[in-house]
Amino acid sequence: MKKLFLICSVAFVLFSSCSKTTEQEDKNAIITVMNTQEKAWSNHDLEGFMEGYWKSDSLKFYGSSGLTYGWEKTLANYKKGYPTKEHTGTLKFKINELSKISDDAYYVMGEYHLIRKVGKADGVFMIIFKRINGHWKIIADTSC
Predict the structure, then answer these.
(1) Is 116 exposed, middle or buried (0-12, 13-18, 19+ CB in 10 A)?
(2) Where are the domains of the chain?
(3) HEC-encoded secondary structure of 61-80
(4) Contact at 8 Å (CB) between 114 and 89?
(5) pTM over 0.70, yes/no
(6) Sign of CA dihedral 93, 94, 96, 100
(7) DSSP designation for 101
(8) What is the side-by-side strand order in the sheet with 105-115?
(9) Nearest partner of 109 among 99, 118, 101, judged by Cα
(10) Euclidean distance between the first and final Cα of the chain, in Å?
(11) How sure is the predictor about 1, in pLDDT bands with cuts at 50, 70 and 90?
């Protein structure tokens, strides 16, 4: 019985340590999400851009027109504000800080730059990423 307990204990420790990620791995995964968003936005693929967000009614987006709740409403606002490729242009993020809040949450502060035919648009953002079902998703976004 002691041997079985010991084997189970060792297996649990090994499994637990294998499933944990390092802070650098987490940061790299978050940066990958943001790089994917840049590409999707720049291709006027707003649905693809929104894949980086938590697909939930609890998503919060705070921008120049106030607070928006929900993935669908946020997507609708993007479609209304950026109806054509000329409006989305080319997106570039500049990450100024990426910091751990907890094992499953980080915040990112930075700048966005849109190069487009209808005029450049630049601003700042602070987003909160949370690991949900093994994937990093934005659960809150403040952009202006």
Answers:
(1) middle
(2) 2-143
(3) EEECCEEEECHHHHHHHHHH
(4) yes
(5) yes
(6) positive
(7) E
(8) 66-69, 60-63, 135-143, 121-132, 105-115, 90-102
(9) 99
(10) 62
(11) low
User: Is the Cα torsion angle 65, 66, 72, 75 positive or negative in sign?
Assistant: positive
Q: Which two tokens stand for residue 141?
A: 């976004």
Longest dimension (CA), the chain: 73
If you search the block for the tokens 């949900």, which residue do you land on?
132
* Mean predicted confidence (pLDDT) in 120-137: 97
Mean pLDDT on 112-129: 96
pLDDT in tens, 57-71: 999 999 988 999 999
Query: 122 falls in which pLDDT band (50, 70, 90)?
Result: very high
- Helix H, strand E, coil C: the string for 12-65 is HHHHHHHHCCCHHHHHHHHHHHHHHHHHHHHCCCHHHHHCCECCCCCCEEEECC
**How many residues belong to the chain?**
144
CATH class of 2-143: alpha beta
For position 16, what pLDDT does the model report? 43
